[in-house]
Design goal:
It is built from 3 helices and 8 strands, in the order H-E-E-H-E-E-H-E-E-E-E. By secondary structure, it is of the alpha+beta class. It is elongated, with a radius of gyration of 18 Å.
């Protein structure tokens, strides 16, 4: 039986959607948080110093990993790589938390929003005059982001 070319293209497109083995969430290098360019006026390049998680990057990864893994139920199955956008305001508080790509699991998606909303304060970004400013970030799961 021959499969029509269009069907092969559709099957390839469906299969090529990246999925995430929940076991990957046990690896530290799967948690990626990086500055997000919102617009020309609100870019990390305009900041003298970027916002920083108190305790450093490894402390942030530990916080995320501990809290995300608590929401991975046995048998959860393969997930889509979630993406969360958030900002760190001028006082260092996480604000404007938004899930922009679902994990495919409603419970985990809700937990991600809560994890970022309740995240400890950061040292805020500063502009060239040393004033604290808001900075936007993107969280992804995957080596270098997905």
């Amino acid at each position: 039986m021959k499969i029509p070319a269009l069907a092969l293209v559709l099957i390839t497109a469906i299969v090529s959607v990246p999925f995430l083995d929940p076991q990957a969430l046990f690896a530290d290098d799967m948690y990626v948080v990086r500055p997000l360019v919102v617009d020309a006026e609100h870019t990390s390049a305009a900041n003298e110093n970027n916002a920083a998680f108190v305790g450093g990057e490894q402390a942030m990864v530990s916080y995320l990993k501990k809290n995300v893994l608590q929401n991975i139920a046995p048998g959860i199955g393969w997930l889509k790589p979630p993406v969360v956008h958030f900002s760190v305001d001028a006082q260092g508080a996480p604000v404007r938390v938004e899930l922009v790509a679902t994990s495919g699991n409603d419970g985990l998606d809700a937990a991600l929003i809560q994890i970022f909303t309740e995240m400890p304060h950061w040292k805020p970004a500063t502009d060239v005059l040393g004033r604290p400013v808001e900075e936007a970030f993107e969280f992804t799961v995957g080596k270098g982001g997905c």
